């Protein structure tokens, strides 16, 4: 009786009269349906109106003209790069890194916080409800960068995974970053473990989780890779890194390790169901089979891959093999818009330039990449990524009756192939964080001023050397 009383006392929000793409296993959709939120969970989803006898309904939303989808899940980003957008615009990856590392190496705690606010705010306005940030720049004396990023995500109300990155291969050891921007092996491992213990929440409805995330083969020692994997598994958290992004990386791995990136990752313990890698552009059939065999996930970043001329990832082949694939914005120094909903469209279009042409992806597969696929990659598919009873109340209402979309009969095609759709409402954990395209949790204008000021301060600091 007590449990029933508690359930009836739960505050409910009812959303009605909208098209719904649940992105569940069967791809269930409703031309006009309802969603009931009870606290921070989805209580019911179905066709037509909500039941009339629901208790404790505190809000009813008439969502006529809208499409409801799961919130978008961003599986790879570098928030700090919000402060260095629009630079090195005609470079490939290695040249771009060489050009920007000296500036990035001057970042400090206020800069990291402002950049995280800017990155998260832009994504949240565009329908992202869960985001991952791979932060691997930890200059000496820069302050508590991890804490600043976590604080920004908490204040905005976005579900968040901090991939605590690290680098221990500086210029003097043949790496790309300046020596003062890398950590020692022991310091990197100790700081990563401390970050996990301070910020990681393993609970079902956790708003913050932490992953162990050495940066990439060309900025990290083999020992940091190996011990990082051991640390993650001892602490029970996920692992993340960059993999197979460019042909130069593949050449680097063969020259330094005598094997390609995937074989190198496997030799260091970096393939498994608890691992996801960003990019994975240059993979052969054997590489894809290894990812499928081990359940290793992929964060596909189509706009960044194009911006840095890295190539076209074999997403259709990865999916056909059963590899978990989600979408990533990547850092905004290589994807200046910083918005994930544009990646739905770009993933579809860019992959159709590849070998599979028009059969590569369709609109619904693209939406799945940006929702359920991303939740899979982050290890949260049981909790979010689809609209199903019992899952967390992370969802978006996209307005589809304006000039931009009203003549497209299929709302999912309109969302993916059309112009960026306005976000009327975005809910995270049952809390509304966006209304009519504006953030409810922070002052957007104040964030814009802060990011501008910190970007200018970073530029001045870097110019002084």
Would you mind describing this structure in some detail?
- The protein is of the alpha/beta class.
- Helices cover 37% and strands 21% of the residues.
- It contains 15 helices and 17 strands.
- The chain has helices at residues 2-9, 93-104, 109-125, 145-156, 185-199, 222-235, 247-257, 261-267, 285-294, 302-307, 315-321, 341-351, 363-377, 411-417, 444-464, and strands at 12-21, 29-38, 41-47, 57-62, 66-70, 72-74, 128-135, 159-166, 208-214, 239-243, 275-279, 297-300, 325-327, 395-399, 423-428, 431-435, 438-439.
- Strands 1, 2, 3, 4, 5, 14, 15, 16 and 17 form a 9-stranded mixed β-sheet that branches. A 4-stranded parallel β-sheet has the order 6-7-8-9. A 4-stranded parallel β-sheet has the order 10-11-12-13.
- α3 runs parallel beside α4 and α5 packs parallel to α6 (222-235).
- The protein is globular.
- Residues 1-7 have low confidence and may be disordered.
Question: Characteristics of this structure?
Answer:
disordered N terminus; alpha/beta; nine-stranded mixed β-sheet; 465 residues; Metal_Hydrolase; four-stranded parallel β-sheet; 15 helices; hydrolase; single chain
- Sheet-strand content, in percent, reads 15-25%
Largest sheet: 9 strands, mixed
Separation of termini? 68 Å
Structural class: alpha/beta
| Helical proportion, percent range | 25-40%
Number of helices, counting only DSSP H or I runs of 4 residues or more: 15
Low-pLDDT residue intervals, each spanning 5 or more residues: 1-7
What is Rg? 22 Å
């Amino acid at each position: 009786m007590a449990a029933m009383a508690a359930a009836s006392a739960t505050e409910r929000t009812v959303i009605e009269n909208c098209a719904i793409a649940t992105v569940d296993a069967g791809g269930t959709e409703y031309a006009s349906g309802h969603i009931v939120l009870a606290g921070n969970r989805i209580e019911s989803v179905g066709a037509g109106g909500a039941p009339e006898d629901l208790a404790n309904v505190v809000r009813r939303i008439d969502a006529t003209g809208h499409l409801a989808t799961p919130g978008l899940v961003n599986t790879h980003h570098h928030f700090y790069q919000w402060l260095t957008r629009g630079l090195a615009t005609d470079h490939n990856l290695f040249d771009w890194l060489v050009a920007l590392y000296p500036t990035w190496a001057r970042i400090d705690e206020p800069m990291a916080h402002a950049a995280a606010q800017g990155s998260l705010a832009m994504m949240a306005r565009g329908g992202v409800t869960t985001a991952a940030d791979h932060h691997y720049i930890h200059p000496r004396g820069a302050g508590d960068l991890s804490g600043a990023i976590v604080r920004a995500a908490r204040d905005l109300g976005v579900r968040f995974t901090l991939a605590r990155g690290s680098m221990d291969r500086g210029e003097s050891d043949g790496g790309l970053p300046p020596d003062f921007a890398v950590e020692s092996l022991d310091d990197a491992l100790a700081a990563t473990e401390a970050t996990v213990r301070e910020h990681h929440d393993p609970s079902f409805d956790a708003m913050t989780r932490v992953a162990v995330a050495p940066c990439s083969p060309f900025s990290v020692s083999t020992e940091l890779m190996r011990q990082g994997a051991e640390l993650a598994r001892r602490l029970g958290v996920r692992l993340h890194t960059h993999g197979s992004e460019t042909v130069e990386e593949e050449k680097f791995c063969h020259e330094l390790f005598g094997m390609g990136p995937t074989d190198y990752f496997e030799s260091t313990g970096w393939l498994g169901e608890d691992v996801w890698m960003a990019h994975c552009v240059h993979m052969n059939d054997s590489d894809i089979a290894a990812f499928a065999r081990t359940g290793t996930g992929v964060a596909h970043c189509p706009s960044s891959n194009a911006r840095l001329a890295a190539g076209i990832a074999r997403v259709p082949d990865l999916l056909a093999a059963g590899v978990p694939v989600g979408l990533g914005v990547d850092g905004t120094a290589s994807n200046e818009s910083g918005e994930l909903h544009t990646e739905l469209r770009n993933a579809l279009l860019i992959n159709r330039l590849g070998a599979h042409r028009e059969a590569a992806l369709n609109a619904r597969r693209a939406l799945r990449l940006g929702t359920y696929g991303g939740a899979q990659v982050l290890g949260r598919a049981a909790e979010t990524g689809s609209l199903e009873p019992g899952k967390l109340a992370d969802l978006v209402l996209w307005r589809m009756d304006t000039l931009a979309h009203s003549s497209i009969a299929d709302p999912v095609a309109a969302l993916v192939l059309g112009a960026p759709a306005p976000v009327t409402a975005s809910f995270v954990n049952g809390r509304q964080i966006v209304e009519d395209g504006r953030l409810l949790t922070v002052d957007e204008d104040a964030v814009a001023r802060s990011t501008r000021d910190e970007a200018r301060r970073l530029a001045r600091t870097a110019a002084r050397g």
